[in-house]
Each structure stands twice: as structure tokens, then as C-alpha cells.
Amino acid sequence: MAEKRGRTLAEKVWDEHTVRRGEGAEPDVLFIDLHLVHEVTSPQAFDGLRLAGRQVRRPDLTIATEDHNVPTVDIELPIADPVSKTQVDTLRKNCEEFGVRLHPMGDAEQGIVHVIGPQLGLTQPGTTVVCGDSHTSTHGAFGAMAFGIGTSEVEHVLATQTLPLRPFKTMAINVEGTLRPGVTAKDIILAVIAKIGTGGGQGYVLEYRGSAIESLSMEARMTICNMSIEAGARAGMIAPDETTFEYLKGRPHAPQGAQWDEAVAAWRELRTDADAEFDAEVTIDADALTPYVTWGTNPGQGLPLGESVPDPEQLGDEGAKFAAEKALSYMDLEPGTPLREIAVDTVFLGSCTNGRIEDLRAAADVLRGKKVADSVRMLVVPGSMRVRKTAEEEGLDKVFLDAGAEWRQAGCSMCLGMNPDQLEPGERSASTSNRNFEGRQGKGGRTHLVSPLVAAATAVRGTLSSPEDL
Amino acid sequence: MEPITEHTGIGVPLRRSNVDTDQIIPAVYLKRVSRTGFEDGLFAAWRGDEQFVLNVEPFDRGTVLVAGPDFGTGSSREHAVWALMNYGFRVVISSRFADIFRGNAGKQGLVAAQCSPDDVELLWKILENEPGTTVTVDLAEKTVRAKDFSAPFEIDDYTRWRLMEGLDDIALTLRHADDIAEFERGRPAHKPVTLPAEQSQ
């Protein structure tokens, strides 16, 4: 028998949601507090319910929005792509039939599923959150256990409000020190992924800890947890603290009155015990970090902006070398080229990684009074209609428009190019999104992942840049 | 789900690591509302290349895909599993699978068999030297065989049992409906609900 020891944050949330412990090889049955639904991964799940004659067990713990497919211009018109339209219409019909609340296109609360959950105050510490989308890890920034699931699991949660799962392993990501000016949460997470690789987090929940994490805003914490999946992790978490409570207080679905005090008291317990042990640990020195950009076709292929495109021959193992050769060929890059000399055609500011109001403010501060280079097209796509409205109240839309950028409606947009916002074959982007996979932003498109600050500076200079280059 | 205890079919060597789900099926192919017909999007970006393995006889009739490490990373899209199965694949062998992909595969009856990197390399060589070689994946024995090659593979026991019995996950969970109801009664009142307050009472 193992000695009784303290528990990690992840273990505490898991234990609190265990409906039933599995015996032997059987998984645990885990209760799900919040199920977020969107149009792409849900139609087959609702169809499955219908075929089996099942209902949605807890419509009151389920919420839907339209985000992946939606156009970001002319949203008052019918969706031009008939197949996208079918998917959106199907979601509307399903939500009506099964009694699920929906924030459709044009609604004041419509937006990317991972932006609206926190914004509405639905994402709360110590909850379990799932969605048929891998970036559900975003919600872990609140100390929630949040992870992406497939469509069969979406159906399972709709029918039972639970999931059969084996407990995840735990990994501590210690980020100690103070970030230099111009270095952001995006740079932290790109550095983490470059360090542990796209498979490094597999089977784990990552808990981001340390002084650099504690000093981050909620929005920055969401950026970090969002990309946990790019390290292969099931989820990412950050222990809730005063910053978390401050963010949540007064939000539409946050507890109120006596329930607020009760909730905060419970949330304060959500910390990894001093004598808890993680299955693995990684440390990142925040003081040493500089802006990071990716050069390849997976998010682990990243380097500080000050460096050059790597030479595959210099990379350690055969696998990494082979992958780098393939990546450089696809990206049309020569080893040794300084990253700062890479010219881009498009800059995309948005997504569930960096489409929140703070991200737009940071980019606008860089762009204010400047112009997007003639050779560059810049798309600014707010993560939600509320982010868009707030930005307009602050005059950020004017800053972007004056600089020559496009100011769009809310949605996933060019992060995955399911709507018309796509790169042309051979086009190169600096993108604040989360995936630089081949063809992710459009067939033949080439993506460099960057922070909002780097995106804005790159838009002005036309080559990968940080604000200090301006 | 159809029970599966053993499968034999033509092996397809896919010498690539980090085959993410955007490569398996790009987002533009995700717009159907059914579970079928996704084979047209399978490896869409690579299918245009006539040298691509699935464009080469007899690999185009393959049912066992043998891929490099970190297969199925990225997006949670179950469409990746549907696309592979719609095309005809019943098994994917890799030295490392992304967690969500592996979960999705298990739900749909696609066997995700994890072999050592050395065994994947050996299988690639066999399949490349003699195209059309069949690979047998035996769930009861947890072994992969091709000609005189035989190697163990890993799969979690619960998924293996479900695959072999062809069991529906939801029905299995609903055996514990009483436990779920009891858990719900004990949930703290401060937990969030999605409906407006007046409807959620």
C-alpha cells in the first residue's frame, strides 16, 4: 500500500467528481459540471441520442454556441457555404429539440466556446468542463479540470452527464521568475512545448505553478492552459487565487450573495498540498524567456525570435531530423535564415488562444499611430461578440482600422479555416492561434505561431518582429 | 459496435511522425452531419501526390495503417477516426498515440495498437520490401504478426474488453444511473448552471 500523502490540485478535483470508482481495469465514472457544445462535433452525437431514444440528461449543465464555421463578415446574411449552413442549422434544431441553451450567430454572447464560458462566469474553480474541442484545456486556468473529447464522448455526456475515464497522471510545470517586458504568456507556453515536445504531456494533466504564473492575469493564464493540448496533455490547470476570484465576481453565472462566500471558501482549498507528489516535473526560467515563434509544422518546433531557422543536420535524433526536414520543405525555409528575416503575407490576431480583450489591447498598443505594411493583410477577429463590443467601447476597432487591419465579427476564423477566412496555397502567416500544422489555415498555407505583441509588430514591419524592433 | 477479436489485412507503411488530425482530415471536410462519407477527406493534402502510399497498389486496399510516433495529435475531431474507418482501416499501429485520438478510436471500434518504435520500424521494412503483406492484429493475444514477424502490442484492458465484446459505452455507464442520481443530489448549490435562474430551479 502506498503511504497516505497529500494530493495535487488535479487529484482533488478528480476525487470530488468521482461518481463511482472503477474496479480493476474498469475506468472511474466522472461527473461533468459543464458541457460546452458547438456545431462541428455535436451533430452525430445528437443523432446518436435520437436513434437510441435518449434525452439530454442535464440541459441545465449544457450550453451551445456557433463558432467554428461562422463567417466573420456579413453575418446578417445567410451563410454562403451550404454545407456550413447545414451544420449550423442542425445545431439550432438539435438545441431546440433537446432544450439546450444556444448563443447563435449575431447573439450578444456568441463567440468561441472557450471565450464565452469564462466570460459568462460558467467556468469556475474546481469544476469539470468538457467540450468536443481539444482546446477545452483553456478552462483549466480557473482551477477546473477541463479537457477535449470526441463526438462519442459528447454523446455520452449528453446522455449521462458523466464520462468513463482512468485518472490522468500529473506533471508540474514550474515557471519561476519575472517576465521581461514584451514577453507574454504565449511565449511561456511555446517555450514549454518546445521543451517537452508535442508528445511530452501525453496522459498528463499539467499544473502550471510558480511566481511567473501567479503574477499573470486570467486571460494570460487561459492562453497558457489553452495550448496544453499542443504538448499532448489531457488538460492544464492553474490553482485559483485572488486573481481568479476577482475575475469571476459579478459575472452572469458566478455565485452571488451567501453562495459566493461559500464558493470562495471551497475554492481556496483547491491547491496542491505541500506533501503531494507529481508524476513528473519541468522547470522554466521566466527571467530568461524572450518572444518565441515557431518555424516548423508542429507547435513544438519553436525558437526564440532572435535565433535562426535550425539546421536539421544539427538536431539530435533521427526522428527529429526527419521531421524538421519535412517541416522546412513545407514551410519553404532555409536553415540558418534569421527568424526576423522571414516575411509574412498575413497576420491573424484572434482564436481561443489569443482572441480576448487583453490580447486585442496589447496588439492595439503596438499598432496605435502605425500602419500595417503594404505587403501584409491583417485580420483582427475578436474571440466573442462581447470582446468585440468592449473593444469598440475602448476605441480599439479604430486603432486597427486606422492601421489598415480588418475588423471582423467573432468566431474561430483563420485559426482553422473552416469558414472563408483561409490562407492561399504558399501564403505565410504570423498567427496568434495554436496550431501551425500543414494546411491548418488553408491548403498549402504556412503558419508561424506568435504572441499578439509579435503579431502586431510583424504586421508593421512585414517580417517576424517584436515591438522592440519598431 | 461490431465485436472484433482479430483482424488481418494489407499493411500500409506511413513513414511519418506527428500525423495530427488536421492531416488525417482537414477542417474543410468536417462539415457533414453524419458519421459516414469522410473517406474523401482522409489525408486529403497528401492524396494529391501520386507517390503517396494510399495512391499506390496494393496499399490502396490496406486495412492496417502503420504510422510513426505521436499519431492523432491535435484536434479532438472524431472525424479522423471515421475517415480512417470509412476508408476501410480497422487497425492503426503506432509507437505513440495522442490520448484523445486513442479514446475516440476505442469508442468506434478502430483498434489503436501501440508497438515499440523498433517493431514499427521492422514492420515498415517488411511492408516496404513486400507490398501487399498482410498484418494480423490479435486482440486476445495482444500480438501483431506479419509473415514470421511477431510482436506484442499495448492497449488498455478495458478498451480491449469492450472491443472484443462490441459493447456500447453509454449502456455500460447507465448501469450506474442510481450512482449518478445520488451524486447529483449531493452537488453543492453554488455550482454553475447554464439556464437562466428562473428556468433552472
SSE inventory with pairings:
The complex is a heterodimer of chains A (470) and B (201).
Chain A: H1 9-16, E1 18-20, E2 28-31, E3 34-37, H2 43-52, E4 62-65, H3 82-98, E5 101-103, H4 113-119, E6 128-131, E7 145-148, H5 151-160, E8 162-165, E9 169-176, H6 185-196, E10 204-209, H7 211-214, H8 218-226, E11 235-237, H9 242-248, H10 257-267, E12 280-285, E13 292-294, E14 302-304, H11 318-331, E15 346-349, H12 351-354, H13 357-367, E16 377-380, H14 385-393, H15 396-403, E17 406-407, E18 428-431, E19 446-449, H16 452-461
Parallel strand pairs in A: 3-4, 3-6, 4-5, 6-7, 9-10, 9-12, 10-11, 15-16, 15-18, 16-17, 18-19
Antiparallel strand pairs in A: 1-2, 2-8, 13-14
Helix pairs in contact in A: 2-5, 6-8, 13-15, 13-16
Chain B: E1 6-14, H1 21-24, H2 44-47, E2 64-67, H3 79-87, E3 91-94, H4 99-108, E4 111-114, H5 117-129, E5 134-138, E6 143-146, E7 149-152, H6 157-165, H7 169-174, H8 177-185, H9 197-200
Parallel strand pairs in B: 1-2, 2-3, 3-4
Antiparallel strand pairs in B: 1-5, 5-6, 6-7
Biggest interface reads: A-B, 87 and 61 residues
Shape category of chain B: globular
> How many beta-strand segments of chain A?
19
Distance between the termini of chain A: 61 Å
Biggest sheet, spatial arrangement of strands of chain B: 4-3-2-1-5-6-7
The parts of chain B where pLDDT drops under 50 for at least 5 residues are 197-201
Major sheet details of chain B? 7 strands, mixed
What does this molecule look like?
The complex is a heterodimer of chains A (470) and B (201). Chain A is an alpha/beta fold and 470 residues long. Chain A is built from 16 helices and 19 strands. In chain A, the strands form 5 sheets. Chain A has a 5-stranded parallel beta sheet with strand order 5-4-3-6-7, with helices on both faces. The longest helix of chain A is centred in the first third of the chain and has 17 residues, at 82-98. Chain A is globular. The mean pLDDT of chain A is 96. With 201 residues, chain B is α/β, with parallel strands linked by helices. Chain B is built from 9 helices and 7 strands; from the N terminus they run βααβαβαβαβββαααα. A 7-stranded mixed beta sheet of chain B has the order 4-3-2-1-5-6-7. Classes of the chains: A alpha/beta (470), B alpha/beta (201). At the A-B interface, α2, α3, α5, α10 and α11 of A face α4, α6, α7 and α8 of B.
